[in-house]
Amino acid sequence: FAKPHQRYLYLSILFNILYSVLNIFSVATMLPILGLMFGTMERVDTSVAPSYSGNIGDYFNYLKDLAYYSIQRSMDQYGAVQVLAVLCAITAGAFLLRNIFRYLGAFLLVNYRVKITRDLRSAMYTKFLNLPVSFFTEQRKGDMMSRISNDIGAVDNGIMGSLVDVVNSPFMILTSLVTLFFLSPELTFFSLLVFPVMGWIISVVGKSLKRQATSAQEELGNLFSLVDETLKSSKIIKIFNADRILTNRFEKTTQRWQNFAIGMSRRRELASPMSEFLGSVTILLITWFAGVQIITEKSMDPETFLVFIAIFFQILDPAKKLSNAISSIQGGMASLDRVSEVLDYDLKVGESASPIDPKGFHESIIFDKVGFSYNPDGGRTVLEDFNLTVYKGMTVALVGQSGSGKTTVANLLTRFYDVTSGALLLDGINIKELDLKKYRDLIGMVTQESVLFNDTVYNNILMGKQDATQEQVYQAAKIANAHEFIMGLSEGYHTNIGDDGGKLSGGQKQRVSIARAVLKNPPIMILDEATSALDTESERMVQLALENMMENRTSLIIAHRLSTIQKADLILVMDQGRIVEQGTHSVLYSQNGMYRKLVDLQNFG
Ligand code: ADP
Ligand code: MG
């Protein structure tokens, strides 16, 4: 995800290097300023210009001598106060430039961060759209929601938010260390002691921090699932007075989340005080060592010591930030794992390498010895030796008791699931070989629960065919027996229908779904209990709509009310995943078998 935006990172690193170098420069100019103030400057010999010995170790001293020499000469010429003013002005300029670079570096990094986070979120959303149906029966929706919001948020905060420090701190530390080394190798040795200790602490704390973060994010996922369920089922919760049970469950989940979140923060908050303490210890070590040198041997200028300490303080801050960043990243990593779990889900399982374009539906759909189980590793077989040939233009009905496998047949035809054994052929080609999107273009579906989106009626219908004209949308609504009631809504076609179409009645929702399917105009139509959730009055309206729609189409009707399927060309009676009877209504009814029993049962009911 970083790749397309890499240039932001590289540029930012460049600016951060410039920033670090200027930072050292601006601190180094303090050296002669202090020298001026303390009067130690006088010791420089102004009669001969300093020369470079050629030894790399002396280079810094040479620069220092050269600077002192030039300053000394200027002082003789213009006076100490003026030189001090100029030096301060130069330092101020360096500080200004340094902070401009800092801003540029941070600004570029923000771009990098936001763009990656956005891409990550888009990728996850696209993945959601393409994941197979089986994924969503295994995973809870709330947890998925939590991943796309909370976990990506945590990645953004934890990893991307720490990027500024990760990019900047090493350069700050490095340039400072190099300078320190030139100032005083012995003192630098003491300052280095702090790093391995700090590194060890960070790695120990980081590991357990990541564990806690993973658990915390998982609990957050549970929380979202619970909220998702609660919001969806408010009526049921009220009528069962289930609020106490749910509150309890919510409390328990938040309690567990709280424990992990505290555990995580406790570890993260350790980073700062520990690195600060280590820093202070180091400063005291340095002060002690330098103090002894200055007092007893006078081998060190006081201003060198002051600048050394000043630069060392400059290391402490980035070091602290770096250790904080590393622990934040550990937390972010836990979330990144959860995000990757979804992003890395392999969609290509069972997909043909070179999918065929079906180019319409011309002859037949054949279920050839189809067997199916929702859980192929040892699960119960739901369909067994299911054979069916549907020729173009036929209306085939599936009947049978609840749980006999009717919806499963529809699930296989739509390729929501793939057959476990046998094959499903469209015009003689195994549907696994076909381009999935183009294949699904051939199929329309209306189910018991109409699924509508929180949008206008118009846009809900338009989903059937996104480039349809207004005329076509109206036409579809008329065929679906919906045009009249839609016109009667407060804002006609542009009325918002609420979440899940909550502002419409069951029959109205169903007719909008049918209009949507009509607009798509697919050659194959599946109706799964499309009228069973309706009262008799709206059922009649919907039934008419369905009959309009099924004209000139190949249809698979799954029906609970047997009165609706008497005109079907072929009726299959299913029992426990097998076809037990088949034929037309009159033939089956006269057979005195299961079909007759089902019909008679309903007529008495
Ligand atoms: P029908 O539509 O005839 O009422 P289904 O085809 O929905 O029956 O279900 C057939 C069987 O498959 C039932 O026993 C049901 O428990 C099982 N089943 C349905 N969906 C799933 C699923 N997603 N995972 C596991 N088992 C399922
Ligand atoms: Mg069903």
From TrEMBL:
<feature type="domain" description="ABC transporter">
    <location>
        <begin position="365"/>
        <end position="601"/>
    </location>
</feature>
<keyword id="KW-0812">Transmembrane</keyword>
<feature type="transmembrane region" description="Helical">
    <location>
        <begin position="277"/>
        <end position="296"/>
    </location>
</feature>
<dbReference type="InterPro" id="IPR003593">
    <property type="entry name" value="AAA+_ATPase"/>
</dbReference>
<dbReference type="InterPro" id="IPR027417">
    <property type="entry name" value="P-loop_NTPase"/>
</dbReference>
<keyword id="KW-0067">ATP-binding</keyword>
<keyword id="KW-0547">Nucleotide-binding</keyword>
<feature type="domain" description="ABC transmembrane type-1">
    <location>
        <begin position="11"/>
        <end position="331"/>
    </location>
</feature>
<dbReference type="InterPro" id="IPR011527">
    <property type="entry name" value="ABC1_TM_dom"/>
</dbReference>
<dbReference type="InterPro" id="IPR039421">
    <property type="entry name" value="Type_1_exporter"/>
</dbReference>
<keyword id="KW-0472">Membrane</keyword>
<dbReference type="GO" id="GO:0005886">
    <property type="term" value="C:plasma membrane"/>
</dbReference>
<dbReference type="InterPro" id="IPR003439">
    <property type="entry name" value="ABC_transporter-like_ATP-bd"/>
</dbReference>
<keyword id="KW-1133">Transmembrane helix</keyword>
<feature type="transmembrane region" description="Helical">
    <location>
        <begin position="189"/>
        <end position="206"/>
    </location>
</feature>
<dbReference type="InterPro" id="IPR017871">
    <property type="entry name" value="ABC_transporter-like_CS"/>
</dbReference>
<feature type="transmembrane region" description="Helical">
    <location>
        <begin position="78"/>
        <end position="97"/>
    </location>
</feature>
<dbReference type="GO" id="GO:0016887">
    <property type="term" value="F:ATP hydrolysis activity"/>
</dbReference>
<protein>
    <submittedName>
        <fullName>ABC transporter ATP-binding protein</fullName>
    </submittedName>
</protein>
<dbReference type="GO" id="GO:0005524">
    <property type="term" value="F:ATP binding"/>
</dbReference>
<dbReference type="GO" id="GO:0015421">
    <property type="term" value="F:ABC-type oligopeptide transporter activity"/>
</dbReference>
<feature type="transmembrane region" description="Helical">
    <location>
        <begin position="11"/>
        <end position="38"/>
    </location>
</feature>
<dbReference type="InterPro" id="IPR036640">
    <property type="entry name" value="ABC1_TM_sf"/>
</dbReference>
<dbReference type="Pfam" id="PF00664">
    <property type="entry name" value="ABC_membrane"/>
</dbReference>
<feature type="transmembrane region" description="Helical">
    <location>
        <begin position="163"/>
        <end position="183"/>
    </location>
</feature>
<dbReference type="Pfam" id="PF00005">
    <property type="entry name" value="ABC_tran"/>
</dbReference>
